[in-house]
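User: I'm curious whether this sequence folds into something compact or stays loose and floppy. Could you predict its structure so I can see for myself?
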Amino acid sequence: MDKIMGFMESAVAGAAKMALAKKGRLAFRRHKDAHDFVTDADLAVEKYVVGRIRGEFPSHSVYSEEMGGLEGKSKGDLWILDPIDGTNNYSFGLPLWGVSLAYAKNGIVQAGAIAIPELGLAFCARKGKGAYCNGRKIRVSKRSKLSDCLVLFESRLARSADRKRIRALFDVSRKAFGIRVLGVAVFNFGFVALGSADISIMSGLKVVDFAAGALIVEEAGGKVTDLSGGKWNLGTADFAVSNGRVHRQILEIKGGK
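Assistant: Here's the prediction. I'll summarize afterward.
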């Protein structure tokens, strides 16, 4: 695992540097769907990281945001990459974006790393070994009153067809201190892990969005579940993330009228 962690941190740092260099001089930006872009930077960063994985771990499988599933020789070893999480922010010139890479063994995430280049933040975690930001061990917040808590929402909630769920999630915001919608999952996970925010509620995520971040929050002492309180896995899409002290309060809130 030491080899994997060292490789992961190096690959993410290199990817972050490449993406930062390309920002502001994109060759193209095209719609993937009505609400999402893909840029030449996404594809270049993806090619760089996947190439490094193939060179260092040729038998491992890779799943990446733009390429989708790539068949590898190993069913047990899986790398999960989001070359630029927050591409929409990135392509509009906002600093709220990052690079995310995770390694899973037999379906369980064992290590994860996230870089947020424009804020100079580098997160990493190894299962059972704690979470770190810029080499410093981090912990979630200690706030235990929902009214004192800052909630981060994932913007895809606004596109959800489940009106009852939307009402329930906004009911959380009315009982909390305040809400922020940053539009990028790596920020939500990272800031909960740092203790800068206390709660994040996200819906419609893909595995590339959460694989590294969910582990980082847990290793920082937080709690990550689906919206029913069940254990998350690589197929989970809807998340409740917290410092653990207010998790039950979140799950107990019902939708408004």
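Summary: The helical segments are 2-22, 40-56, 87-92, 163-175, 185-194, 207-219, 247-252. DSSP finds seven helices and 15 strands in the chain.
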